[in-house]
Write a structure and sequence with these properties.
Number of helices: 2
Oligomer: single chain
Order of helices and strands: EEEEEEHEEHEEEEEEEEEE
Number of domains: 1
CATH class: Mainly Beta
CATH topology: Beta-galactosidase, Chain A, domain 5
Strand content: over 45%
């Protein structure tokens, strides 16, 4: 299957989002053409994991198709909706919308989740980015800053827990339960310097 990339850009950054998994693949500075997600020959990506609590290996964000629902020069939104096959593995009706919006040197990532079932839905949501040992890491409350040479990327969120684990930067919910016919939203900001 051919990769379909959605390209968005600001005056400072160009970003590529892979429709398969709604993954942020490239974060490129227009100034010096550096890709913040590239480590040597390895192209890292900000991967989304959406699954039932404790069931990351059944990542619905990779198993189900995403559809572009909004696209502009500096923004793209993709949606993930349950189907009959996913319902057999995860017996809930849901919709996930992930939006990437560029503002100069910042990417605002918003994840809207709606439980369309009439019962409580246990879930976990993660954004996962592999990082190499080349990165220096500075940790503050609700933010991480990764830097190497003249590149810096800051991750910040007020409603996701930010951690480093097993050479991965992870922005995660705790095990959550979303009531029937309810919705919630999670946000994270990446600032590139």
């Amino acid at each position: 299957m051919e990769k379909v990339m959605q390209i968005i850009e600001s005056s400072v950054l160009q970003v590529a989002v892979d429709e398969k998994g709604a993954q942020l693949v490239n974060l490129v500075s227009k100034n010096n053409q550096s890709d913040y997600f590239k480590d040597g020959d390895t192209q890292n990506r900000l991967k989304i994991v959406f699954a039932e609590n404790g069931q990351d290996e059944k990542n619905l964000a990779e198993l189900l198709p995403w559809t572009v629902v909004d696209k502009g020069d500096a923004r793209v939104s993709l949606t993930l909706i349950d189907n009959s096959a996913s319902y057999k593995k995860f017996p809930y009706h849901f919709e996930v919308i992930v939006s990437y919006v560029l503002e100069e040197n910042r990417i605002n990532i918003k994840c809207y989740l709606k439980n369309n079932s009439h019962k409580e839905m246990p879930f976990s949501l993660k954004f996962l980015l592999p990082i190499s040992e080349e990165w220096d890491i500075k940790e503050n409350i609700n933010e991480f800053e990764l830097s190497k040479m003249d590149i810096k990327v800051k991750f910040a969120s007020t409603n996701l827990t930010l951690v480093l684990r097993d050479k991965n930067f992870i922005a995660t919910t705790n095990d959550e339960i979303l009531n029937g016919n309810q919705s919630t939203e999670f946000t994270m900001t990446l600032t590139a310097n």
